[in-house]
Predict the 3D structure of the following.
Amino acid sequence: MSRFQQLTALASLILLGGCASTIPANVAGAGTQLETRQIQTRQYDTLDKAMTMRSVIATLQDLGFTIDQADAELGTITATRLHDYTMRMTVTVLQRDASQISVRANARIGENAVTDAATYQDFFVVLDKAMFLTLQNVD
């Protein structure tokens, strides 16, 4: 390989590297699909799906997300947060059994699924507080 070809290849790599979007290093975890699903899901002792959805919307907004779409019938909320990168989160609220609601959050950065537990823990810590306050009728 000639010196010119080496410099051209190096310049191409530098330019392509500069075009890459910044994705945090902790986007991908090392868990299985089942472990990831367990990290993404919480159960709440309530029968009020509408109240749970309002709490999810408030939580997403508190975390800096903009609500893109909410469908009460399907129980889905989609939101986007623009920071150093664009994160899109979809939260699904489902009646689990006679006494519980299941909330599952699914985050993506670009085309990459976020499997890092800390992302979901941050979301559920805020949602847990919102659910507790709402269930206690505290505004």
Observations:
- The chain has four helices and six strands.
- Residues 91 and 105 are 4 Å apart (CA to CA).
- Confidence is low (pLDDT under 50) at residues 4-23.
- Strands lie at 41-44, 66-71, 76-82, 86-95, 101-109, 112-113.
